[in-house]
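Amino acid chain:
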Amino acid sequence: MDENRNFKLKAALLSTCLVSASLNAVTGLVPEMAAAFPDLTLSTIELVATVPSLFQMVGVLGEQLLAKLIGHKGAMLLALMFCAVGGVIPIFLPLFPVIFVTRCFFGIGCGLLMSSLLTLTVRFFTGGTRSTMIGLNGGISGLGSAASTFIAGQLLVFGWNVSFSVYFLGFAVALLVLFAVPRDGNTPPEPSDGASNAARPRRMLPAGVWGLGILMFTAVMLATMYVIKASTLITDSGFGTAREGSVAITFLSLGSFAAGLTYGKLRAKLGGWTLVLAFAICAAGNLLGGFAGGLIPVWIGAFVLGYGYLIFMPFIQEQTSRSFGAWGETATNLVLVFQSVGAFVTPWLGGAFGAFTDVLKGQFLITAGCFAVLTLGAAAFSAVGMRRAR
């Protein structure tokens, strides 16, 4: 593949991250939507931010079946249409039932995108280039989330429903994919560490895959607390308005962008300890939010949390691919499903924390404590791994 074509392919694939990352663009609108729909509870309104994560699972599970009919490129194009159409409908029909349904379609599109992007990345690239692309996926996602959230926040002056205009981006990216991405590649996945593919059974997934899935579920669920609660923390504490809440999500996304740019180097230098660092950073971000006395600490905490978030996510995804490559896309898709469900159930996690304290800052501190436990667990696991390696 010549350099020019290779660049276009990388650009097209990475551009899809801009669309899937815009999932959180309307998270900062939660206070405005709560005011627009006073008969609905806050947790119901927050489903607008998290229900797409549940339906991502549908997209992830259905992508392989769909790819058999129209190919992974076709699945990617269909996903972009789901995101674009489902994203912009609330501009014209700002009714909560309509918004809820279209967010479900947006989630299906994101799930299809996640699975098809990972599959095409593995098929078109190998070795260090593949690892770099996986890291850049997170970085570009952070950039896309930051830009879309900021734009959505600025569009609030025209009405909260106008903020959904950010999803018109999906149509432009679909055109880029249509002309720049070739038909599905044939590069097979690299053999997993420690054993050949032939030496392992294919039917039953090993316990390690489920363990990584549960870890992803737990970490994403905890990290999403900051994503959906930061705007409410700012408005309820009198630090600012919903626009400043949207800026908090922008800072979180910028942290994710920085993480994507540095993930490859961290992984190469720290190995398994990368996960320990990521969880510790997430704990620090929540501590900043929990002790915040003003707007700036909340923004800084969002940036820190976003950085840790987009370190542990690609780490777990890549670890699944490295350790369980013999199970192919089944293993990676299972982890993606756990990731989606973890984000979806976060509003109920906030409800569970509410049994201990109704103070939102207190819930951030509980989340920080949970990440501290994950940090210790990851450190213990890494230490055991190093001892065995010797």
